[in-house]
Design a protein that fits this description.
single chain; 386 residues; alpha+beta; D-Amino Acid Oxidase, Chain A, domain 2; 2 domains; 21 strands; globular
């Protein structure tokens, strides 16, 4: 099997398949020059942490590199209502964990090396379909693959080459990201603040910094990022309502454009899409990588089911994977769009505040939200690992 991609979805899929005895090669799409200033922070759900622990990866990250949290808070700018979502509301111990992309990449790379998973530079032009699957590479260095999984991200060159159509929507927004130092004690839980400028996510990083992701119209993001550091810090301090005291930049702000993407089909003949190659969502819910990890979970499960059935069982296994994951992700995309409209558009009748007031005072209303946010809507409660 060949997996195209270098991110956590591709790498975790390679590890799980290799552990199950499948011969796997990773076609690495990583650029030659690495971004040493990469400070991306992933918010992993409890279900994603559970999947990582099937390979012992959560334990290897440890508390110094994965900061778990059992509560998160949603607030409206300059309004008193606050909604606290707690793992205890569903009889659990944690909602998720926060880990830097570089640390997750390191433990996945170590696991791949331990499993002996080979890697090769991805060259979309050297991949061809054959009667029995795929030919990877050219000349004497080429090799066959019975299945090709494309997990190289939202701008996948290989997906385009193979003619897998997608529907896209430009949000007309950009996400400003940076690391912040707080005047008061480091925060203990993630917060989402819905401000007049856009949704502001505030995530406590394992190293004590506060990771910020602020979504706003492109023109405003450009204007904010062109501010002096002092002016930018003042704007963020105001947006947070001063709950952390004065904020100061620990890493420079970066902006990237936001769009929605969804593949019209996740599978083809001996072909599957996974992760951002199949779906890209707005970051304010913090669920992008979790959806990708759920792709991995379902695909690995379907491939396990078809092992005893031989080659004839591969087609229905891929079909089940594609139908299930596209249906589930489509529902999530629609729900996310509804929340965006509710929290980012004008609300003259106060529907937002009324919804948050109801959630704040009734645990019964919060439980479905928590189960979906943790990925535990259809799973048992995850307990902490030691």
């Amino acid at each position: 099997m060949a997996i195209a991609g270098s991110g956590p979805v591709a790498r975790l899929l390679a590890c799980l398949l290799a552990r199950d005895g499948h011969p796997v090669i990773l076609l690495d799409d990583r650029p030659q020059a690495q971004d040493s200033a990469d400070t991306r922070l992933y918010a992993l759900s409890a279900r994603s942490l559970e999947l990582l622990e099937t390979e012992g990866l959560y334990t290897r990250l440890g508390p110094s590199r994965c900061r778990v949290f059992s509560d998160l808070e949603i607030t409206l700018y300059q309004e008193s209502v606050r909604v606290r979502f707690a793992a205890s509301d569903i009889g659990g111990f944690l909602l998720g964990g926060l880990v830097y992309a570089r640390d997750l990449d390191q433990v996945l790379g170590t696991q791949m090396a331990a499993l002996g998973i080979p890697t090769q530079r991805l060259d979309p032009g050297s991949i061809e379909r054959t009667s029995g699957g795929w030919k990877i590479g050219t000349g004497e260095a080429s090799f066959p693959a019975s299945l090709l999984v494309v997990a190289e991200g939202g701008h996948s060159r290989l997906r385009e080459k193979l003619g897998m159509p997608v529907e896209t929507r430009d949000y007309g927004e950009a996400a400003l990201t940076c690391g912040l130092k707080t005047e008061h004690d480091p925060p203990s839980m993630p917060r989402q603040v819905f401000t007049p400028w856009g949704p502001l996510g505030l995530l406590p990083a394992p190293d004590g910094l506060l990771s910020c992701i602020f979504s706003m119209p492109v023109a405003r993001a450009r204007a904010w990022s062109n501010q002096t550091p002092a002016a930018f810090e003042a704007l963020l301090t105001e947006a947070t309502g001063g709950i952390y005291g004065r904020l100061s930049l620990a890493t420079p702000p970066r902006a990237y454009p936001l769009r929605r993407l969804h593949a019209l089909a996740y599978t083809g003949e001996r072909l599957a899409l996974a992760g951002d190659a199949a779906h890209v969502i707005h970051p304010f819910a913090g669920q992008g990588l979790n959806l990708g990890f759920e792709d991995v979970r379902v695909l690995v499960g379907q491939l396990k089911r078809c092992r005893d059935g031989g080659e004839e069982a591969l087609y229905p296994a891929l079909l089940r994977y594609g139908r299930r994951r596209r249906r589930e992700n489509q529902r999530f995309l629609l729900a996310l769009e509804a929340l965006r409209v509710l929290f980012q558009k004008a609300d003259p009748v106060g529907l937002r505040a009324a919804l948050l007031e109801g959630l704040a005072h009734h645990a019964l209303l919060r439980r479905p939200w928590i189960r979906h946010a943790t990925g535990l809507a259809d799973s048992r409660t995850v307990e902490p690992w030691t």
